[in-house]
TrEMBL record:
Residues 18-249 form the BAR domain. The keyword Coiled coil applies. The lineage of its organism: Eukaryota, Metazoa, Ecdysozoa, Arthropoda, Hexapoda. This is Endophilin-A. It comes from the Eukaryota.
Length: 378
């Protein structure tokens, strides 16, 4: 028996090589059988792909799906209680938590809690959808794949091997290397497998009524899910608009900003020399432009004094200039100004540019040709 089986496998392999490499003659099936094969392949691909895509539709997060599979493979109560984390439930828990922190009496806090609870209801409805689809759609598809489709593929594989065995023995018969009885026996087995493969494919393709029924159940489950979601969100939307109206119509509280006096902090006396010294030692000068941070401390003090006195002391002893024309900065670091603006001169950059400052405190580079120097730099 073992020797006969090995001889058969060698005959099949030899015939396959003859057909693939040398385009050897082979038995051909009729158009009806070929069409059944195409439809059967399409049905098998559909059943396999729909299972995968439906699971992804119900549970979009691949990492969470993998975690669920790992938990279910384990034993114990954790595997039985494990549930896929619905995104609606995650968002609902977040909103409910923030609403509790703000307080139920707070309008926004109350609205967040209402929204969170509604989203958690949708998550529960989604769990119900998962169970219905798995029970009424995915499980029948899996059963079809593991029974009818598996049987069809088995008969077709057996038919392919017996066809190769028959063609190989018939080719040898023409050369006188094999008896007629062996060819006749191979032909009978070929005929049997052809009948089994054709019958199983026909049975599978005639099962379309059951598949359409399962699609209808799937559609009904989705319809129920979306209807329940719409009802939940419609009720939530009405409540939120009511809360909005309540928030708009509630009495407005008069707001009085907190002052230092409310904090029992006395105002500092400006006229006292000691107070001025304390003020200078505790309060750092405000610098509006980061460029000034690189200036030496004496220069920063001069700039601060200039900011306070520029508008009222145009003819002071500080180095300054007056703009002859308008200038619009075109490059980073340049300072825009208008005609007749007075600018404090901070330093000379090169033969064409000064570093200057407007009374507003803005600093930057100014072109020498656009200004007239009143008091030059030392």
């Amino acid at each position: 028996m073992a020797l006969a089986k090995i001889s058969k496998q060698l005959n099949i392999a030899n015939q396959l090589i003859t057909e693939k490499v040398f385009n050897g003659e082979k038995s051909k099936f009729n158009d009806d059988y070929t069409e059944m094969e195409k439809k059967t392949d399409a049905t098998a691909d559909m059943v396999d792909d729909l299972q995968t895509k439906t699971k992804e539709f119900l549970q979009p997060n691949p990492a969470a799906r993998a975690k669920m599979v790992a938990i279910k493979l384990s034993s114990g109560s954790q595997a039985q209680k494990a549930q896929y984390p619905q995104t609606e439930g995650i968002l609902g828990n977040a909103m409910t938590g923030h609403g509790k922190k703000l307080g139920e009496d707070d309008p926004l806090g109350s609205a967040l809690m209402e929204t969170g609870e509604s989203l958690k209801q949708i998550a529960d409805v989604k769990y119900s959808l998962d169970n219905n689809v798995k029970q009424n759609f995915l499980e029948p598809l899996q059963h079809l794949q593991n029974s009818d489709i598996k049987e069809v593929l088995h008969h077709r594989k057996k038919l392919s091997n017996r066809r190769l065995d028959y063609d190989g023995k018939r080719r040898k018969q023409l050369k006188g290397g094999i008896s007629d009885d062996e060819v006749r026996m191979a032909q009978d087995k070929f005929r049997e497998s052809l009948h089994n493969a054709s019958t199983s494919m026909h049975h599978l393709l005639e099962n379309d009524v059951e598949l359409i029924s399962q699609l209808a159940v799937f559609s009904e489950s989705l319809m129920t899910y979306y209807q329940q979601c719409a009802e939940i969100m419609q009720e939530l939307t009405s409540k939120l608009y009511e809360k909005k109206s309540e928030a708009m119509n509630r009495p407005k509280k008069q707001f009085i900003p907190t002052t230092l006096s409310d904090l029992n902090i006395d105002s500092l006396s400006i006229g006292s020399n000691n107070d001025r010294q304390n003020n200078n030692s505790n309060v750092k000068p405000t610098i509006s432009n980061p460029i000034l941070l690189s200036q030496p401390q004496p220069t920063v003090n001069l700039i601060n004094n200039f900011n306070n006195n520029m508008r009222t002391q145009q003819s002071s002893a500080y180095p300054h200039c007056v703009a002859l024309y308008d200038f619009d900065a075109e490059n980073p670091g340049e300072l825009s100004f208008k005609e007749n603006d007075t600018l404090r001169l901070l330093s000379r950059v090169d033969d064409n540019w000064y570093e200057g400052m407007l009374s507003s405190g803005r600093t930057g580079y100014i072109p020498m040709s656009y200004v007239q120097v009143k008091i030059p730099l030392p």
